[in-house]
Amino acid sequence: MYQFKRILVGLNLSDQDKVLARYAGLATRMAQAEHVIFLNVASIPDIPDKIGEEFPELLKSTHNLSEKQLKETVKEHFFGQPDTTTECEIANGKPLEVILKFIRQHEIDLVIVGKKSEEKASGMLSEKLARKAPCSVLIISEGMQPQLTKILTTLDFSDHSENAVKIAIATAKTAALSEIYCAHVYDVPSGYSRTGKSYTEFAKIMKNNAKKEFDKFIAKFDLKGLTAHPVLLLGDRPSKEIAEYVTKEDFDLLILGARGRSAGAAMFLGSVTERLIRLTECPLLAYKQKGEGLGILDAIFS
Q1: Residues facing 114 on adjacent strands
Q2: CA distance 146 to 300
């Protein structure tokens, strides 16, 4: 997590803010972060224009109350490294647009946002941010506790998989862990029967091939003394297989490369990553190299 020097934390003045502040503290200690911005995007009160003009203290009082609550939450629950500076900001507008603008204006490396347990459908803020932000996004579900004892990353042997493995190694080393887990989902091709092999026989062939690919892939990295365990999962729905494995094995962090082999702009995630955001309760880091997709994002805002 050494790359995350400037962190933005999205708070919404709910109980989950306490958890996000604690995770922000953990992130700053691990990354030796320089600066953290705690941001609350407030909806504009439904006050008629004439009333707002006549009584401006209505808007001001709402802003002051939000700022006070934000600062109290940070003071009570944020325990970052001593040298990290912090600031609290209140902004009005649509959360996605405001956060994306803050990322650009403040050169943010990592965004930390929450996800409610009942949020499953596409279109939720955390998924939109992970898709569009030109930086990494850490998504924390309700009820999580900031700890780091077991890390899983996924790989399809692409360049973005390499980035995810690198950040997994760095994170594990910083957390004084001895191992990481690397999940790859393989499938049996539909025409396997034409080879004269049974499904079980060909599944074994595909698994052996995946293991060879993994060994070749992982040999590229300096593991810094860590053990990288291959997790080879059979199935034709990668997001489902990975989500079930994460739940079964109780991981503390799932690290994903923000895009695999799919074509398209680097600011958009692959479908597997998007589904995992919806399916898993495990803290999830959608890792991007800083600035990916920034040109397209600038074009959209301009």
Answers
A1: 140
A2: 35
User: Rounded distance, CA 97 to CA 103, Å?
Assistant: 10
Which tens digits make up the pLDDT trace of 264-290?
A: 333 334 678 888 888 889 999 999 877
Number of H helices, E strands in the chain: 10, 10
Task: Tell me the two tokens of residue 212.
Answer: 């060879």
| 284 phi/psi in degrees, rounded to 5 | -130, 125
Q: What is the spatial distance between Cα 252 and Cα 254, in angstroms, rounded to a whole number?
A: 7
Q: What is the pLDDT of residues 25-50, one digit of tens each?
A: 999 999 999 999 999 997 655 666 67
Helix, strand and coil content of the chain, in percent to the nearest 5, comes to 45, 20, 35
Q: What is the pTM of this model?
A: 0.86
Token readout for 85 is 């500076």
Distance CA 204, CA 87 (A): 54
d(CA 268, CA 259): 7
Count other Cβ atoms within 10 Å, centred on residue 49: 7
Q: Which domains does the chain have, with CATH numbers?
A: 6-301 (3.40.50.12370)
The SS3 assignment for 254 reads strand
pLDDT in tens, 145-200: 888 999 999 998 887 789 889 999 999 999 999 999 999 999 999 988 899 999 99
